[in-house]
Amino acid sequence: MERDSDSLREEYFHIAFFSMEMGLDHKMPTYSGGLGTLAGDILRSCADLSVPLVAVTLASNKGHFSQRLDKAGNQVELPMEWRIDDFAALRQPKVSVPIGVREVKIQAWEYLLTGLGGYQVPVYLLDTNLFENDPSDREITSYLYGGDERYRLSQEIVLGIGGVRMLDALGHTTIRKYHLNEGHSALVALELIKGMRSEHPEYTNEQIIELVRKKCIFTTHTPVPAGHDKFSASLVKSLLGGYLEADEIAKICPGNELNMTLLALDHSGYINGVAKRHEEISRNMFPGYPIDSITNGVHHVFWTSEPFRKLYDRHISGWRKDPFDLRYVISIPKEEIIQTHRDAKGRLIDLVNAKHGIGMNYDTFTVGFARRMTKYKRPDLLFSNTERLAAIAKNTGPIQIIFAGKAHPKDWEGKELIKHIFGAIKRLEEDIKIVFLENYDLGLAKVITSGVDLWLNTPKRPLEASGTSGMKACLNGVPSLSVLDGWWVEGCVEGVTGWAIDAIITNRSPDQSDDSKDAENLYEKLERVIVPMFYRNTDAWAEIMRYAIAFNASFFNSHRMVQQYLLNAYLT
Ligand SMILES: *Cc1c(COP(=O)(O)O)cnc(C)c1O
Fold it and tell me: Is the entire prediction scored with pTM above 0.70?
């Protein structure tokens, strides 16, 4: 019986999940931020739920960078040395893809992600660092988001075309669906078209495309235009001239440009955004496409701190297997929630004090802000009016703040923002203890999201597709104060699960943010509602912590998300 059900799965059920980055382990620099972290959480849930899925990404042999910050907040980027063979095993087959005038050879490392019940999801890390390759081709899979357009398109050829070929060579010949996580892997569609053509020479182009659409699922992740890869037709010709006919290149480059998002949209039968609001925004950006949404979630066990894991284990024995059970946190006594959070906070404060020696206090109201440092996320909004902030800390109750986040190496505005924040830290030195922790990664994210008292998020609407760090916070009983964008549109019940910045204006003009109005509203919420409640009404505060878990952690987790992918996309 066992064998039968296994072979059934093999035959009808494999999902291939493609993503440029994947946050598998904090020691593996194969991710940069939210997108990769989310991909990792999807895979962790698939492993727990025994979803027969295989994943494909790049080896990123030299990784995403490690961040150092000098005294003025200048970001220094160091290569992140790591050995892939400490984590993954080299598989036998090699495949090749034509890039420019050369055939580039690719090998795959297999990383096995083991779920709660022992089920393993294989992740294939594609690697061009082979002796038989030209020295420049050996670097194609070295740097995550490094290099120029030519480098980037070469990487996407390896990921998309090479990925399909590698799965085939590894014996995964019965893939039910190809899930393209963001447009980086859209070239999967071209390789599938090629395969179907040779399999069904009698089919028309339309029939072939229809078949490919049945196979492809596309998830778009950002309304920020720069987040959608575009390549010039001449670059496409130069790199894919040996793979595609001239008329095929013309077809995928309308307006002399290859837009990876459009390529994915045109070849996918199921398309989704990553939150309800993001579905609306994406439909406006890409009219005519049937865009649905599956709201993101985070892996509940991975992102729950040790103290809260123990608390949940004691009260809700089934929560690791079934995070819907987190709903029953509502019956855990408030004092226990407060005490458990104190333990998690102690770990964060100890880490901050050990690194920065600034004597942060266990009892002081602590705000956290950590994510990629980039303009639309407005990490400096909190410092719009430093006198006002200092006055709140002085008159209403003391505040301390913890920041972290990398700027992409070419995001000059993001790097300026870090320096800005360093300037504000200096100006506020006498009034508020603030630190900026270096080198934000999965490990640090766990400690910060679970250790602060309030999670702050201030993106410019409507540019936050989902956001996931606030979900990590709510698993640990940490409420959010956030702009109503992305997931928070769904997760915020004002004064119950946290607070919205700018709630009233949102209803009138849903697609805009006014920096000064948002900052004003942020200060007001802190001054009138949040800081007073924290210091003077512990019972009300604990109630909010409990609702953040019961309402939000029970829903915004990746087990629910994967089940929705199964229901709406994988099994259709
Ligand atoms: C969760 C996470 C993010 C995403 O944070 P957002 O607030 O959703 O942008 C980025 N980087 C790391 C390391 C994370 O763990």
Answer: yes
